[in-house]
Specification:
- This protein has 1 helix and 20 strands.
- With 224 residues, it is mostly beta strands.
- The protein has a domain at 18-119 and 126-142: Jelly Rolls, CATH 2.60.120.10.
- Strand 1 (3-4) and strand 2 (8-11) form a beta hairpin.
Length: 224
């Protein structure tokens, strides 16, 4: 189930998977992101070493507790914590419990190297803007101050109860709907599709859409 139009794109979990994390042509050109994926079942002790990127990166931690460092400054990770690491920010994290998260990245810039970059190997990064962390309890709506570079206005979890509908509306911004659990029905300009865990719908600003579920479910929702 993969649908591609100039107004919306729907990708199933098999295609929208970690094997395509650095792909630059899977997502449409009008999308600010090139990756938005669901990574369940991450284990206690997992983390990443200090590194930076030739693009911007987001992490949305769905569960678990740990710490993240952005250019040497540390912050607590709790469920629903949002982390934004712009290009050139040295970052790392360490988890103290099992966890699930949703990573997102933007298009590669500068040397366009699709990997972790280390100062001792690849040279010191060229800074862009500072990153930021929004605590789990505060990540409930649009970012209060996303600054001059951040391409997203929000990235958070949306819960739909059994039988709940998101009323039909025209998307004011480009929207991304990533299913975390449950079965979600989406209608986009007359096209009806049922989405499962890991499936992603990308909707260009101006598209008419409606979402709903019979048994309930969770989604990661981003707007640009």
């Amino acid at each position: 189930m993969n649908i591609r139009t100039d107004r919306y794109v729907i990708l199933d979990s098999a295609l929208n998977s970690p094997k395509n994390y650095w792909s630059q042509d899977l997502y449409p050109s009008w999308a600010a992101l090139t990756t938005l994926q669901y990574l369940p079942g991450q284990r206690t002790g997992a983390g990443v070493e200090p590194h930076y990127h030739d693009n911007d990166e987001f992490w949305l931690f769905l569960s678990g507790r740990g710490e993240v460092w952005l250019d040497g400054q540390n912050f607590a990770i709790t469920p629903n914590t949002l982390i934004y690491t712009p290009m050139g920010v040295i970052h790392r994290f360490q988890m103290f419990t099992d966890f699930e998260n949703v990573p997102a990245v933007t298009r590669l810039e500068r040397a366009k190297r699709p990997l972790h970059l280390y100062p001792e190997v690849h040279g010191q990064p060229q800074p862009t803007v500072p990153g930021f962390v929004i605590s789990g309890e505060d990540n409930t709506g649009p970012f209060a101050d996303r600054g001059p570079r951040c391409p997203l206005s929000e990235l958070r979890v949306v819960h739909l109860s059994a039988g709940e509908q998101v009323a039909e509306a025209q998307a004011a911004q480009t929207e991304y709907w990533l299913v975390l659990n449950g079965a979600i029905q989406i209608s986009v300009e007359g096209q009806f599709v049922e989405l499962g865990p890991g499936d992603l719908a990308m909707l260009r600003a101006g598209v008419i859409r409606r979402l709903g579920t019979e048994a309930g479910g969770h989604l990661a929702m981003a707007r640009a």
